[in-house]
Amino acid sequence: MSEAFTIEIYTKSSELPEMSSRSFFHSAELFYILEQSRGQQPFMVVAWQAGHVVAHLLAMLRRRGAWIPPYLFTQGRIYGEGEYEENIDREMVFGLMLNAITKRLQRKMCFFIEVSDLTQKMFGYKSLRRHGYFPIHWSAIHNSLHSKAPVDRLSDKMKERIEKVSSNALTFHELSEQTELKSFYRLFHRFFSMKIQRYLPPEEQFRLMMGSRHCRFFVVKLQDKVVGGCTCVYSQKDANLWMVASKRKSHPTLHPETRIVWEVMNLAYQEGYEHFRFLHVGLPFSKNPMRDFILRFGGKEMSTYRWFRFSFSWINALAGWFFKD
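Now predict its structure.
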């Protein structure tokens, strides 16, 4: 019989054990960035067996504000199922780590926990259900870059729009100076300030991410004024569009949101990434302008789940009933 697993949770980067990280979303580097950012607290859940790290999962606790009650609350957030050594029962170990982090976040008075971007729709289904999580049908969109050039997946109508926005007065470049970050962040703050679902990290997190080789920020400008921008995370063979914002209402004829997405997708193709993924497609409504906009770039839509768990049992039961699978 193999030796049992031991689960430990680390909250300080100085105490993290040696880990082999392939995914930026579960790396010690992201742990350190979150640790240094206001309103964020990282938790690295580590599974040990026979004195060796065999799996780890990064979770984060965020302080958030809202226009509706509760006005101030904390949210637990997990991107993906973590990382595992070969020949490990991923489903079983995931269940052990999920149990440990759920209990820890409950003790932290976390209002709700969200788990997303699992590699397979049904991964961890039994464990998530067993620990009180309920699924909501969600959309995931990615563009394959390894078989065709992005332009070959566009409709004729979208090709015409791309040609138009590529020849207008907007300029595109990668953000490289910390001095440019202030206007970049101001655009994001104004864009997301009235949105209910989206979370905007603090500015210092953006500054720390600029120092990582896995994170890059891009802008489109009208003369010297920032009218669009996006943040991208590069992990393994994928380019991930994390957040995008623009002044599309102020400049409707220039389509800054189209220009920024098209430029970063083409750049990922030229640099040899296999997929371009959109991390936030929007809420799973039948009419979703953000999802419809993204699909114009020729991507593939897939059905997936996002999992949620509220700490208050009656809210969790009610939400679970309303969104029952």
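The chain has a mean pLDDT of 91.
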